[in-house]
Amino acid sequence: MSFAFTRELEVEMSDIENKFRESLKPWWAQLANLHNKLQGDQSFQLIPAVVLMAYKYLGMERDVRVAMGNLFKTLYFANRIHSMVSDNEEGQIHNQEMQFTILIGDYIFGRVLKLLLEAGADQVLDDFAHMISLINEGQVIKHKLDKSPREVLQKTSAPFYSTAFLTAAKLKGLEPTQATLYAEVGFNLGMTLELSLIGQKMEALDYLNNTHSLIDKFQIATLDNDFELDKLVQEMLEMVSFFDTAAVV
User: Fold this and answer.
1) Which end of the chain has fewer CB atoms within 10 angstroms, the N or the C?
2) This protein's superkingdom (predicted)?
């Protein structure tokens, strides 16, 4: 499934990929195989694009957008590496390949703090810590509890999107209530995208309707700011073009 909104972001997406590889260069020979395994993971491609969009529509500088896109891409990569290791393998100390995979994942998580400092975004460190906590909780829900795909995505995938929007708002200097609204836009947008990727179109439609409503509220709350969210609304309609557009108006 392809999304129209990513087309205008191709150059910046390429910059993110270059920064991603450069930041992990010391280990790239060992990481290349793991990286290749994720090429079919659409979330791995979508999340950096949505980060760019979240920051772009708040008028953030290009360097900041690319830096934060790389940071979220790196976090998602580390999380996926850890999730590749099943619970029963974690106790097998003799499995050197598995232990190395865990070590690599830990190393990449450790790189995130450096990336935050490089991006001048250390003030949102607590938000990333909270995101990682939610994702870890989601992994427990996914592997240990009998929950619906929607409930799993709310904790394993949606935090990437909500945190992208929240950190963009905070770094922009928005008021707390405005930042919370923007984070809710990200959460609902993320759920729309992630549910659509697994074919849960009707549930995705509910989140799309929520997204439109929240964007309206955000525009009212930031009436004096030129954030051009009308463009975001139109691009979102393109993203979910597989829906009956009349149903979401």
Assistant:
1) C
2) Bacteria
CA–CA distance, 60 with 126 (Å, rounded to integer) = 20
Q: Which domains does the chain have, with CATH numbers?
A: 4-248 (1.10.600.10)
**Exposure string over 15-24, b if 16+ CB within 10 A, otherwise e:** bbeebbeebb
The whole-angstrom separation of Cα 248 and Cα 55 is 25
Q: Which helix (H) or strand (E) holds 20?
A: helix 10-23
Cα distance between residue 105 and residue 87, in whole Å:
15
- Structure tokens given for 117: 């400092």
CA pair distance 188, 159, nearest whole angstrom: 10
Q: Which helix (H) or strand (E) holds 244?
A: none
Q: 249 CB contacts (<8 Å, ≥6 apart)?
A: none
* Residues whose CB is less than 8 angstroms from the CB of residue 110 and which lie 6 or more positions away in sequence, other chains included: none
For residues 69 and 31, give the distance between their C-alpha atoms in angstroms, rounded to a whole number.
19
Q: Which residues contact 119 (CB under 8 A, 6 or more apart)?
A: 64, 67, 68, 71
- pTM of this prediction exceeds 0.90: no
Of the candidates 208, 198, 191, which has an alpha carbon nearest to the alpha carbon of residue 249? 208
Q: What is the pLDDT of residues 53-104, one digit of tens each?
A: 899 888 899 999 999 999 999 889 888 877 766 444 444 444 545 555 555 6
162 neighbors 142 (Cβ within 8 angstroms): no
